[in-house]
Amino acid sequence: MAEEFTLSISYQGIIREISCRLRISAFTYQVLCKTGDSEWIVEKDDEGKMRARQADPFAHTGQKADPGLVRALMEEMERILL
After folding, report:
1. Which of 47, 50, 40, 38 lies closest to 76 in space, CA to CA?
2. Which residues, 6+ apart, have CB-to-CB distance to 38 below 8 Å?
3. Which helix (H) or strand (E) holds 81?
4. Secondary structure class of 76 (helix, strand, coil)
5. Of 53, 49, 54, whose CA–CA distance to 77 is shortest?
6. What is the pLDDT of residues 35-75, one digit of tens each?
7. CA quadruple 76, 48, 70, 68: dihedral positive or negative?
């Protein structure tokens, strides 16, 4: 069962509401986060740090994701989950 929640992130002086879903499998978890037209998977890497990758790298959304916003999202997830 996926747990849904909303993150409020301040980025470039604007509060952004990012909708997320928590997916838990056997020994790990992933958080699917939607920023604009892009969906990101945020998870721990092998070193225990958070990483983000596009949920569907082949999806054409018409606009590029803001790397700073993705970084802010990862930092917020680290703060919450670690």
Report:
1. 50
2. 54, 59, 61, 65
3. helix 67-81
4. helix
5. 49
6. 878 889 999 888 888 899 988 877 766 677 788 999 999 99
7. positive
